[in-house]
C-alpha cells in the first residue's frame, strides 16, 4: 500500500477472543478517526492455495477496518500495528498483520463483517455475532463525481460548449474545469471535421435514397437545412425570401 491513504483494512492473525477488546481500545485512541469496525472471526474450513487444510496457530483472526480524516502513511501505519500486535498477541510475527488497501463505503465494510457474501464467508459460522461498529449512525459523505475521459469526448463531439459541461457536471467542473476548457479549445477543430464528415455521409445517403425513388439529387444546402429533403417552398419560408 502506498503512502497517503485515509482508509485501511487490517487482518490480524494469531488472535484470541480477548484480543478483540484490545483492538477496539487501540482504534479509540487513534487521532482523527472517522469510523472503525472490528470483527473476531473463527477459521472454519479454510484451505491453503494447494487445497490442503489450513492449520492456524489460533482458532481466530480479527478484522480491523477504519477511516481517518487526514492522509497518513500506510507503510508506517502497518509498521506500528506490527509492533503493537507482536507485543499483544504472543507469538505473532510480521506476517500475522495482513494489510490490503481499504476500499468501499462505510456500508460496504459493514456488509463485509455482517453478511455472508459468497466470495468471502462460506457460512454464517464465520461471522462475528457481535462486531463492534462505531459510530452506528455514520452518514457517508457524497463521493466525488466520476466522469470518464470517454464521457468528456462523447459530450464534446455532440458540439457541447463549456457552459453545457458546467450545467451537466457542476461538481466535477469545480475541480477540473480548467482542464476541460483547454481540451475543448484543442479538440474543437477535430469536432468540426467529424461533424462535417458525418453531415456529408448523411447527404450521400439521402441522395442515394432519392435516386432509388426516381427523384433529383438534393443540394448540400438543402441537405443541411432539411434532413428529409424538403421542397423549395419550405426553403423559402426558412430563409424568409421575398415573394412568399
Write the layout of secondary structure elements.
Layout: E1 3-15, H1 19-28, E2 33-42, E3 60-73, H2 74-88, E4 97-101, H3 106-114, E5 132-134, H4 149-157, H5 162-168, H6 170-212, H7 220-225, H8 232-239
Antiparallel strand pairs: 1-3, 1-4, 2-3, 2-5
Helix pairs in contact: 5-6
Spatial arrangement of strands, main beta sheet: 4-1-3-2-5
Termini Cα gap: 75 Å
What level of helicity do the residues show? 40-55%
Order of helices and strands: EHEEHEHEHHHHH
Class per helix and strand makeup: alpha+beta
Beta percentage is 15-25%
Q: So what's the CATH class of the largest domain?
A: Alpha Beta
Low-confidence stretches: none
Calculate the mean pLDDT score and round it: 81
CATH fold type of the largest domain: Replication Protein E1, Chain: A
Total beta strand runs: 5
Shape verdict? elongated
Which architecture of the largest domain would the CATH scheme give at its second level?
3-Layer(aba) Sandwich
Largest sheet: 5 strands, antiparallel
Could you tell me the radius of gyration in angstroms? Answer: 31 Å
Number of helices: 8
Amino acid at each position: 500500500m502506498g503512502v497517503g491513504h485515509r482508509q485501511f483494512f487490517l487482518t490480524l492473525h494469531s488472535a484470541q477472543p480477548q484480543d478483540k477488546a484490545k483492538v477496539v481500545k487501540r482504534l479509540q485512541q487513534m487521532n482523527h478517526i472517522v469510523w472503525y469496525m472490528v470483527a473476531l472471526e473463527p477459521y472454519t474450513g479454510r484451505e491453503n492455495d494447494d487445497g490442503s487444510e489450513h492449520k492456524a496457530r489460533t482458532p481466530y483472526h480479527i478484522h480491523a477496518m477504519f477511516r481517518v480524516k487526514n492522509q497518513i502513511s500506510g507503510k508506517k501505519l502497518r509498521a506500528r500495528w506490527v509492533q503493537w500486535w507482536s507485543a499483544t498477541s504472543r507469538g505473532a510475527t510480521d506476517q500475522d498483520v495482513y494489510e490490503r488497501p481499504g476500499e468501499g463505503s462505510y456500508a460496504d465494510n459493514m456488509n463485509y463483517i455482517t453478511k455472508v457474501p459468497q466470495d468471502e464467508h462460506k457460512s454464517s459460522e464465520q461471522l462475528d455475532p457481535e462486531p463492534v461498529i462505531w459510530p452506528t449512525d455514520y452518514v457517508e459523505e457524497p463521493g466525488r463525481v466520476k466522469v470518464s475521459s470517454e464521457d468528456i469526448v462523447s459530450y464534446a463531439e455532440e458540439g457541447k460548449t463549456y457552459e453545457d459541461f458546467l450545467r451537466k457536471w457542476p461538481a466535477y467542473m469545480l475541480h477540473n474545469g480548467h482542464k476541460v476548457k483547454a481540451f475543448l479549445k484543442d479538440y474543437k477543430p477535430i469536432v468540426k471535421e467529424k461533424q462535417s464528415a458525418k453531415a456529408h455521409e448523411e447527404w450521400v445517403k439521402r441522395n442515394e435514397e432519392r435516386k432509388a425513388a426516381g427523384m433529383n439529387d438534393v443540394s448540400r444546402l438543402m441537405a443541411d437545412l432539411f434532413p428529409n429533403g424538403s421542397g423549395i417552398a419550405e426553403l423559402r419560408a426558412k430563409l424568409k425570401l421575398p415573394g412568399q
